[in-house]
Structures are given as structure tokens and as C-alpha cells.
Design goal:
5-stranded antiparallel β-sheet; alpha+beta
Length: 108
């Protein structure tokens, strides 16, 4: 599961053109928060070729914000899509509010 930036993304005083974010979820220990490691790559090609990531942004998604119905072809995909939406909103505010993103890698 991943998030593809469709324009520029501003991070740490740098501007990146269409970076790719790979999301790695960790099972919540207490059932309340899902820990998500968000690895930022310069592009999808950089990720697939095995290049190193630029940074890893940690996020915690609270279970109470997960909607009961969302895009996705089954229960797991609905959950992954909802977590990705939450991470996407965290990337927008306050980091790079002028960026736009597309969730990729989850069947909807």
C-alpha cells in the first residue's frame, strides 16, 4: 500500500517532484492506535529499484477515526484504505498543503 504524490511535495526545506510514499503498518498493541511507518522515496521507480528512502515519517492512526464504510473490495482493504486516507491527510497538513496525492496498491 502506498501514496503517490501527483505534483510537488515540500519536506524539510526541499521540494520533491512526485515522491512515492510506501506505508508499513504495525499491529496495534492495545487495539487503539495503528503505528504506520511512511517511507518517502524520490519516485516509484526509486522504490522498485531498491534505492534508499529519503526519510521515514511515523504516524499513529487512532482506531476511532476509521470509518465503518469506505472504498475497498473487502474488510481488510477498507481498513488499509482508511488508514492510508488518514496518513494522506497528515501529509497535507501541516507539511505540504498544496500537494495532491493518490492512494495506490489497494484494490477498491
Amino acid at each position: 500500500m502506498a501514496i503517490q504524490t501527483t505534483n510537488t511535495f515540500i519536506y524539510n526545506y526541499g521540494t520533491y517532484t512526485q515522491p512515492y510514499f510506501r506505508l508499513v503498518l504495525h499491529m496495534p498493541a492495545n487495539g487503539q492506535q495503528t503505528s504506520v511507518d511512511t517511507f518517502m522515496y524520490s519516485s516509484h521507480e526509486a522504490y522498485t529499484s531498491g534505492s534508499g528512502h529519503i526519510t521515514c515519517l511515523p504516524y499513529y492512526v487512532t482506531s476511532s477515526v476509521i470509518p465503518t464504510s469506505t472504498t475497498g473490495s473487502n474488510v481488510m482493504n477498507k481498513y488499509l484504505y482508511a488508514v492510508s486516507e488518514e496518513v494522506k491527510s497528515n501529509l497535507l497538513t501541516p507539511m505540504s498543503p498544496s500537494s495532491s496525492f493518490e492512494i495506490v496498491g489497494i484494490p477498491s
